[in-house]
Amino acid sequence: MNRYSKKALFIIGTVMSLAMFPMTAKAADYTVAQNDSLYKVSKLFDTSVKKIKADNDLTSDAIQKGDKLTVNAKVYKVKEGDTLSSIAKKYGITLADLRKANNKWNDKLKPGKKLILPGVKNTNTKKAVIKYTNEEFDLLARLITAEATGQPYNAMVGIGGVVVNRVQSKEWPNSIDKVINHVAGEYYQFTPVKNGYINNPASDIAKKAAKAALTGSDPSKGAMFYFDDSATNAWLWSKPQTAYIGNMVFVK
């Protein structure tokens, strides 16, 4: 979403370059609880503070209740007849840790519910779905920061989803630099480029959103465009809508 101009068309493009920026898919998102610290979370998931900070692009140790932390942990899908105790026993973890990791303090379980298994590593890896350099990753994260700060996390990932969709399409430029700096006629495709906001550092949450999108997450559901819902551009509103997250509308 671009909050700086209501009528311009806001789109994102990313890169297919020679260098791959590989990433490992972390299987779970842990919700920070009251009185949590990175040290406590690292012990719960049998990892290190340094690793958690690296996986979440954190620049400090400060976390607060409700924050989402990506952790390398296996996710279990509950089956008929499962109990918390039986799952804990099966995977060799304590019932207390299983409850803590999932903020699950009663014994009710429904088939299909997903539980984080603390201390049980996810060994599956997932490479980025497109190629890009470190510099291009940073540029994408800075664009997400400029366009969607204050919007829901999925809206930020959705911007990245549009990025991936455009890179994979033959109808758009295939490099992040060319797409973000693209000028169609008299119009900048991204006003953060025109007004300089794109030069501001990327936020931690924007970096996380960029990583998620570049490994295949797409809350935009295949969108090729996005815009602020206060926009009055009839052409944009006439396009097939794929998602509406926060104040951001995604269309094809």
Total number of helical segments? 10
Shape: elongated
Q: Strand order across the biggest sheet?
A: 7-9-8
Give the count of structural domains. 2
The tally of strands reads 9
CATH architecture of the largest domain: Orthogonal Bundle
Overall radius of gyration: 20 Å
Structural class: alpha+beta
CATH topology of the largest domain: Arc Repressor Mutant, subunit A
Q: What's the short version?
A:
By secondary structure, the chain is of the alpha+beta class. Helices cover 34% and strands 13% of the residues. The chain has helices at residues 38-44, 49-55, 84-91, 95-102, 134-148, 153-167, 176-180, 191-195, 204-214, 234-238, and strands spanning 28-31, 68-71, 74-77, 114-117, 183-184, 187-188, 225-228, 241-245, 248-251.
Describe this structure in words.
The chain is an alpha+beta fold and 252 residues long. It has two domains: 28-117, LysM domain (Membrane-bound Lytic Murein Transglycosylase D, Chain A, Roll); 134-251, Cell wall hydrolase SleB, domain 1 (Arc Repressor Mutant, subunit A). Helices cover 34% and strands 13% of the residues. It has ten helices and nine strands. The chain has helices spanning 38-44, 49-55, 84-91, 95-102, 134-148, 153-167, 176-180, 191-195, 204-214, 234-238; strands spanning 28-31, 68-71, 74-77, 114-117, 183-184, 187-188, 225-228, 241-245, 248-251. It has a three-stranded antiparallel β-sheet. Strands 1-2 form a two-stranded antiparallel sheet. Strands 3-4 form a two-stranded antiparallel ribbon. The longest helix has 15 residues, at 134-148. The two termini are 15 Å apart.
